[in-house]
Specification:
Elements lengths: L4 H5 L3 E5 L7 H14 L2 E5 L12 H14 L2 E3 L8 E4 L7 E5 L10 H13 L5 E8 L9 H13 L4 E8 L8 E8 L8 E2 L5 E11 L3 H17 L7 E7 L6 E10 L3 E7 L6 H16 L7 H13 L1 E8 L4 H13 L5 E2 L7 E8 L8
Helix pairs in contact: 2-3, 2-4, 2-9, 3-4, 6-7, 8-9
């Protein structure tokens, strides 16, 4: 049964300052995920206080309501522009769930970010869950593309014991959205720690150049530019694979995604097209990201380190990663995790620099989830 209002008032709250550090939606998403996992009620204040449009936006509410659905939670403050949210979970459940990004209004809100909000809890829900996230964005600004989630994040999480199958049925671009993703999340008992300290030998670079409802020649121009840039960087053609494709979608869009596969790690870099941006510039932006990573020796790309810290804290034993750049997203995420879990991260560097991130995970298990 959902938490009732009288029980809601009696909770001991984990209080989170939503303006801390990076001060964006990641604080909300991580707080909701850990509240769902641990059963701790959370009160998030000053949500996105430093943003041009502060408070909860429609895409954030989709994440709130998704976690509310899987935990039968009692919620206060779940409205657009709200600066505070109280969330008290009841019981975490596995099952088949559909989360509609555009349920209340048309939106290209990020499917990846909703997926990342519910994933930690459903991994420990005691049974396999099927998740459908529909009518949203798969390739939108301020969010990792679903290609990154499928080919970088999930394979790395699999090294820790997580078994998640994910398929993108339809792409969703800004502003129309309309994307659809389906995932099967297999429950586990505990996560094993991860050690990623060296890249090892380069195995392959795969460049994906894609369009929806635009001329195929745009994808081909993007691909040629990416190939040319990689060759100029001294990367042998034998390591480079290039694919051009058209994604089914109700909207228009274009992107480049570069997957770098090494002996001990995978890394991903991407760029989105927009009206007036030449195809060659789309490719250049993704290649420039990769070039920054290549100039350093640390194996974990900045986006992946941000996404891994929660799972490192949950794992049983010591995890250690070396990232090519410590970001404010990562340090903020660490701060939130430490508010919920009895762990302490050791971070060896300052923002913008390569860093070593170490933590003795608590060994969270399915029996501890609410």
């Amino acid at each position: 049964m959902p938490v009732n209002k009288s029980e809601f008032a009696s909770h001991d709250w984990v209080v989170i300052d939503g303006s801390y550090g990076e001060g964006g939606g990641q604080i909300l998403r991580t707080s909701l995920a850990l509240s769902a996992l641990t059963g701790q009620a959370v009160h998030i204040e000053r949500i996105r206080a430093g943003r041009e449009r502060p408070g909860l936006r429609p895409q954030h509410l989709t994440g709130v309501h998704a976690v509310q659905t899987i935990t039968n939670a009692y919620v206060e403050g779940d409205r657009v522009n709200s600066m505070a949210l109280k969330f008290a979970p009841s019981k975490l459940q596995s099952g088949e769930w559909t989360f509609d990004i555009s349920a209340k209004r048309p939106s290209a809100g990020s499917i990846a970010l909703v997926f990342q909000t519910v994933l930690p809890a459903l991994l420990f829900a005691g049974g396999t869950s099927t998740v459908h996230i529909v009518r949203g964005g798969t390739h939108v600004p301020m969010s990792p593309p679903m290609d990154y989630i499928k080919h970088v994040f999930l394979p790395t999480l699999a090294r820790m014991g997580a078994n998640v199958d994910l398929e993108v049925e339809r792409a969703g671009w800004y502003p129309k959205g309309g994307g659809a993703v389906h995932a099967h999340i297999h429950s586990l008992q505990k996560l094993t720690p991860v050690q990623i300290t060296e890249r090892g030998a380069l195995k392959r670079i795969h460049v994906l150049s894609a369009v929806s409802n635009l001329k195929r020649s745009i994808a081909e121009r993007q691909a040629r530019q990416a190939q040319r840039r990689l060759n100029e960087m001294g990367i042998s053609r034998q390591f480079i694979e290039v694919t051009t494709t058209s994604f089914p979608s109700i909207g228009q869009g274009t992107m480049v995604f570069l997957l770098a596969e090494y002996e001990h790690v995978v890394a991903g870099f991407s760029s989105l097209g927009e009206r007036g941006k030449p195809a060659e510039r789309v490719a250049d932006e993704a290649i420039d990201e990769f070039a920054q990573y290549l100039a350093r020796e640390e194996p974990v790309d900045p986006r992946l380190s941000d996404q891994l810290v929660l799972y490192m804290a949950l794992a049983e034993g010591q995890s250690l990663i070396r990232t090519s750049q410590l970001t404010l997203h990562t340090t903020t995420n660490i701060w939130v995790v430490q508010r919920f879990l009895p762990v302490e991260f050791n971070v060896s560097a300052t923002l913008g620099q390569p860093a070593e991130i170490r933590v003795d995970g608590m060994g969270f298990g399915t029996a501890q989830s609410r």
